[in-house]
Input
Amino acid sequence: MGLLDRLSSRRTEQHEPAHAAASRVEEPVFATKALRKFLSAVSSKPDPVLLDLSPVVGANLTFFGEHLGCRVLVDDVFQEIDRHVRQEQVDDLPAFLSSRFPQEPESFDGILCWDVMDYLDKNAAQALATQLMRILKPEGALFALFGTVPPTDSHYTRYIIVDDATMKTRPYPAARPRQSALNNRQILNLFEPLRVSDSFLLQSHLREILFRKPAADPR
Output
């Protein structure tokens, strides 16, 4: 892990497999409604620091650098899911995720969770959510995507930011398929006590949710 500031697209392409470049010819585009609100929440903080749970995506790092002037810590949780599956250690994921993040409490102004929760079972998802809530600052924002229909795909997805209202998707191989889609109550319970600031159901059968952490008690 390391802090990545305004990396060029050329440098980042070295981190992406060859099949990713080939897939760009037909990258689906969709409108995002929650991303703009996430950006607004984070931009109000001085020198914001973000945590991104996806693989390195050069376009996203450039976007955040130019629009927020922020630092981004990339920690690819999808890679860790794959590693546990291949080593037949999926049952160890909850314990692993509980100790995955060494940062002090309240270290990040914003967290990009993407759709990683869709690939975890209940215990692992709760372990990850608990850690993310611990390291999110009061009034910080967490952006997440959740499938709303029974899963049928067996790939991960890179979400590439085009602008504050548009993203592209780029599939890549996954060792584990999506698990059962979470309903609204399960999602709320997963991230309790964060509050839902905004929630949007997209035509792509994804739900975008922007969570906010309550302000610290002044007492």
